[in-house]
User: Fold these one by one.
Assistant:
Number 1:
Amino acid sequence: MSEEEKTVNETEETTEKTAEEIAEEAVEETAEETESPKEDKKGSGKKEDKKYKAKAAALEKEVGELKAKLDSEKDSHLRIAAEYENFRKRTQKEKEGIYSDAVSDTVKELLPLFDDLGRAAEFASGDNVGEGLSLILKSVPDVLAKLRIETFGEVGETFDPNLHDAMMHEENEELGESVITAVFRKGYRTGDKIIRHALVKVAN
């Protein structure tokens, strides 16, 4: 074999070898390219899992905080309800106590008057009954004053519908308009509160 033929054969072998290597490299590259999306997909899946886990953890934390806040609000509501109930009972008790004290103080001031009326009744047939009753009646204003009760409704006063109830009416040219000419029953008040209106007769 000549030198030229050897050179040609070596060249062909080198070319064939190079072609095989190129083909193998191309196959390997194709395989790598085919595997790469799978790896990317797996990597993306792992990222999504981490993302969902993070969201779940955040939601779980938020739920826990809301639950704790709800429990706190519930405790606060129960505490306020209990305090209000105690306040209501205490106020009711104080109110009843005030009423009892007022009744007690009122009756206490009336007892001397009742005692005098009882003693007067024992001597109903005596000559001094009128005098005794007169003395008792004189003590009535003092008793009312101690109770801070005022009387109203006198002849000559001007009729006031807030204080008086007109039972009768008369025309009298000698008197002015709305003048009280007779009192059938006196009125009583304590401060601005009317206990009983006066029953009167009004002119003009």
Number 2:
Amino acid sequence: MRDLEAVRRGWRWGGVRPASWPEAAQPVPERESSLEWARAEPVRSLRWLVQRCLSVPFVRAMTHLRVEGQEWVQSLDGPVIVASNHTSHADTPILLAALPERARERTVVGAAADYWYRRPWLGRLVSLWLNTFPFARTGGAQGVLHSSSHLLRSGWHLLLYPEGTRSPDGRMGAFLPGVGHLAREARVPVIPAHVRGTRRVMPKGRGVPLPGPVDVRFGRPLRPGPEETSRAFSQRVERAVRELGQGSREPEVIGSWIERWRATGERRRRVARS
């Protein structure tokens, strides 16, 4: 005990490290969890109740939400990636409110791990409310792509913001190639989406939403070509989102009238079967 007391008194807590010592190693971070509990019962039923009775009515009352192209999400049986621009924290609840209820229940949202999951209580809250999972914006992408691909192969839709962060001035940034790689690996289509008006509802740096009109447009599903690289496909998705934001009515962007009619008919047949 005397020896330990002498060491304690002589130890220079937080002092200067001798030059002969090696640099202090960074601690190994814990492996990020995909939060599977958020997609199991009874949490799924609780989230459906919160969104159906609180979140969606509040969003529609605050924004007078107008949605175009909803039939593209309703017509697909398998999993899809919804790729949208990102200007506000309000984007996620508004996009979820714009989705049909059946698709909303099956949608998982990629949330920035370094922002939403720094505080465990906040990460659990958004996972419960919005069905998020940690999406790392820095470091190696292999783990993120693996967890995202696992969710898609399990039948979940995936809502992503390929810009990687919110736009500070409302202008859309370049898409990262990860969305193209993920679509090729999981062999799922990508539905481009554009949200307009959320920067007025909740601009960057503001924590309280304001009422204001919001428009959401979904485009025709896109699939990577056989010889198309992940980066080229991501750029094609980016162009589709930009054209949706510019109000394009081109068939390559929103689909032809016959394609939209068939998508609506497929939805009606599915409802009749169920």
